[in-house]
Amino acid sequence: xxxxxxxxxxxxxxxxxxxxxxxxxxxxxxxxxxxxxxxxxxxxxxxxxxxxxxxxxxxxxxxxxxxxxxxxxxxxxxxxxxxxxxxxxxxxxxxxxxxxxxxxxxxxxxxxxxxxxxxxxxxxxxxxxxxxxxxxxxxxxxxxxxxxxxxxxxxxxxxxxxxxxxxxxxxxxxxxxxxxxxxxxxxxxxxxxxxxxxxxxxxxxxxxxxxxxxxxxxxxxxxxxxxxxxxxxxxxxxxxxxxxxxxxxxxxxxxxxxxxxxxxxxxxxxxxxxxxxxxxxxxx
Length: 284
Known about the structure:
Layout: E1 2-14, E2 17-31, H1 35-38, H2 48-62, H3 67-81, E3 85-94, E4 97-102, E5 105-113, E6 118-126, E7 131-144, E8 169-179, H4 187-203, H5 215-229, E9 233-242, E10 244-247, E11 262-265, E12 271-277, H6 279-283
Antiparallel strand pairs: 1-2, 2-3, 3-6, 4-5, 6-7, 7-8, 8-9, 9-12, 10-11
């Protein structure tokens, strides 16, 4: 049991300059005894209102140095404070506020919400077990208008999809990865580096791009680039929900439409998912 959607804004001041972190936290506990379920005995139950207050107090006392560290702080608190807690899991996601710039000058106390992907993390721990930390990005919408195709696929009597060597590749990406032993990681730096890998693998070089023969191949390229550049990542999961665009037929309007006006196909939509990890992890 636990408390979901604990939402708050943490404001940090350094002189006149302000810093913000707005997050949503979900924290779940498993106790050493199920007596509250089986017997209606609540003597070991930590009220969910208490869970909420603990999260807020930790934000006040410790701040939020990074999403991952805050999730770790929450797990550590419940494990070290309550002997009846056998397992704790905390999920934290961030509202994407960015500092406002005016004529290239960063504003000291104004921010803009930019929906370019939502950062999240999870931390979980069993008593006497290792601390496990995941991080990720979701709702990241990506598009490239060429250098994508889909050809040579299996066909039978039910196939109506034509082959395409030049199409729009667009999708909403979910990416989640796990760390190995969590030492003194700079979680913020690692997250930014992985996000850069995602964008680079999706788009290719800025002057020419890189051809994608399928959504599946793009997903794999993202994973391989992250694993090759970020040694702290052990397993990475990527889901790419596809958005297709159809060219509008304008012949009846007396116009030729050379892929200049397109409409999105809302539903159904395709989805590609893959989980990839280092060999040493699976051997262990």
